[in-house]
Amino acid sequence: MQWELAGYNASMDIQPKPLTTQESPVEVVVIGGGPSGTTTATLIAQQGYRVALYEREKFPRFHIGESLIPETYHVLERLQMLPKLKKSHFVKKHSVQFVNQHGKLSEPFYFFDNKPHESSQTWQVLRSEFDQLMLNNARDHGVAVHEGAHVVEVLFEPDANGAGDRASGVQVKFENGSTRTVPARVVVDASGQSTLLMDRMKLRQWDPLLKKAALWTYWKGAYRDAGRDEGATMVLQTQDKAGWFWYIPLHDDVVSVGVVAGHDYLFKNRATKDHEAIYFEEVARCPGLQPRIANAERVAPFRILKEYSYRATQVAGNGWVLVGDAFGFLDPLYSSGVLLALKSGQLAADAIGAGLASGDTSAAALGTWQPEFVRGMERMRRLVCAYYEGFSFGRFVKAYPHLKGLVTDLLIGDLFKDEVDQVWEPMEQIRREMATE
Ligand SMILES: Cc1cc2nc3c(=O)[nH]c(=O)nc-3n(C[C@H](O)[C@H](O)[C@H](O)COP(=O)(O)OP(=O)(O)OC[C@H]3O[C@@H](n4cnc5c(N)ncnc54)[C@H](O)[C@@H]3O)c2cc1C
Prior knowledge:
By secondary structure, this protein is of the alpha+beta class. The chain has helices spanning 35-46, 72-78, 82-87, 111-114, 127-140, 196-200, 263-268, 275-284, 290-293, 337-358, 363-366, 370-388, 393-399, 404-412, 424-435, and strands at residues 28-31, 51-55, 91-93, 95-99, 109-110, 122-124, 144-147, 149-158, 165-174, 179-183, 186-189, 204-220, 233-237, 243-249, 254-262, 297-298, 303-312, 316-317, 320-322, 328-329. Helices cover 32% and strands 26% of the residues. Flavin-adenine dinucleotide (FAD) binds at residues 31-37, 54-57, 63-67, 150-151, 190-194, 196, 214, 305, 307, 324-326, 332, 335, 337-339, 341.
């Protein structure tokens, strides 16, 4: 049986409003209708500006990135998405749990125990449906959404103040082959891993350490814990710490199960090129996973993605801004991608609103949020690298029980405060001890 991955659930409350502003001139153009694009567009429209969003696909469309983390709550609240999510059939997620290479479980990190607040319950989402909800929510806020509309070019013209070139709009190609030039005061690139502007302007810096790949599929009837553990994300290490599996319980009794490891290890330095064979070779190396899927039925094809981490050297230029994966992609170990998409979208929308109000849409005005955002992203990266260097959460919490709260803060995505920096030295200490054992 094939699970309908891009399935549209008609029972959900996602009735789009008619597009009334479709042909009106706009202040802001957003490229891409994923979480970063819809967040930016909605929050700018909430401030009273006219926004057009161009998405090359027709939704619902498949996308990976199914596990949300609690700090998404605050942006979702501003977007007025919470009632829609509460009404949805998405599985509720209360914790994350790590399983080591020998199959030994760590204590779960319960979000609510760390922060007794409604935000500590988040969701495991089918992205086709979540992204559809977000896109329709943007429409509800007055964004002129165009699907099947591929932005082929960002247009530039000389800045009136002599500050070099500035973005002045986009060129869009529609499904019927017609093209249109759309002028705008600000262009937001939210094109995800297509990284339209980053490539055009040669801003990409590859991460020298995080050169991973992923291989995944979906299982029906796989093992599920009970009670508040039912929707937990599990991170299960494979033997010799060569990689890890994600285990994300979704609705309809389906679990998303994928392996992440070095790209060359997974796909290049191996006798077989067959994805199914590689997947099961890795399952055989993951004692924690084998019994969980032993009696399950595979309900989707295998999918692969090269997922090298990268970041642009700047979030903004004259008249343009980068958000979400179009600014940077970080290894999915802690499910931080959608949070970073939402957070950058929110910070960008606030900077763009202020810039439009003051008449200053220079690189400096649109990029005010770069230092704060990059510091947060860097903290998540540090936690990712620690895991790949062999860091053990179980051991850390045993040695430093008073720091469990701050580690949980990082895991929930509370990355934008200096307090969490207290964990790095003790973490390094554990790493040194383990290196000498
Ligand atoms: C293997 C893997 C597992 C992951 N797991 C998780 C997870 O569990 N939790 C999590 O939070 N994150 C996860 N992520 C990360 C997450 O998928 C992304 O960070 C997130 O989707 C970024 O959102 P975005 O809006 O920036 O980009 P996207 O969601 O990719 O949206 C970009 C949109 O732009 C459109 N587009 C592209 N080019 C153009 C163009 N020229 N014109 C018009 N439209 C265009 C695309 O069609 C797309 O709809 C994972 C990523 C990978 C690779």
